[in-house]
Amino acid sequence: MRSARAPERGFTLVELLIVFAIVCVLSSLAAAGYRHSRAKAGEAVAVAGLQTINQAQFAFAQTCGNQRYSPTLAGLGTPATTTGRAFISPDMAVDPVVKSGYQFVLGATPTPDAPTACNGIATVPAYQVTADPTSQGVSGIQFFGTNTDRVLYADLATYAGNMPETGAPGHGVEVK
Question: Where are the domains of the chain?
Fold first, then answer.
């Protein structure tokens, strides 16, 4: 008598390994895309943060600083006595501040007998700001800087310690 066996069902080991290899390749591509997207998002936040600081400094100089600037981010966060409003949001009014993987540092050379602004802080004639990734390659690839001229610059090297308070830095390109 012949035995009537049902045909075998299921996957072979080779078929499972092929599917597993395809899933691994797709996962690695997705992870690389995610890392790139995260770095680009951090860079976008850095550019927006520097533009916000430049706008706050301009508003400060025009309305409160007698055409001079705040030497610190905390100074921009100090409300004007006339309006009771700060020039920058409280989450940016800390020296230094870290936002979305970038550290922002505002620097300025103090001058003796500097005039005070309407909010009581001593003012400076010029400033510079740097934005460095806290973890280069993960939170961002590029370094950014700006100064009193309100032009943003980007480079693969930091601007910390070499960003002038006016004029173009010795390296990097202008962000358009």
Answer: 13-174
CA dist 13 and 76 (Å) reads 65
Is the pTM above the cut of 0.70? yes
In this predicted model, what pLDDT tens digit does every residue of 36-55 receive, in sequence order? 888 888 999 999 999 999 99
**Highest CATH level, class, for 13-174:** alpha beta
Q: What is the pLDDT of residues 78-118, one digit of tens each?
A: 998 888 899 999 999 999 999 989 999 999 999 888 899 99
Q: How far apart are CA 70 and CA 73, in angstroms?
A: 7
Which residues are CB-neighbours of 65 under 8 A, at least 6 positions away?
117, 118, 123
The answer to whether residues 150 and 97 touch, using CB atoms and an 8 Å cutoff, is no
Reading the block at residue 173, the tokens are 């390109």
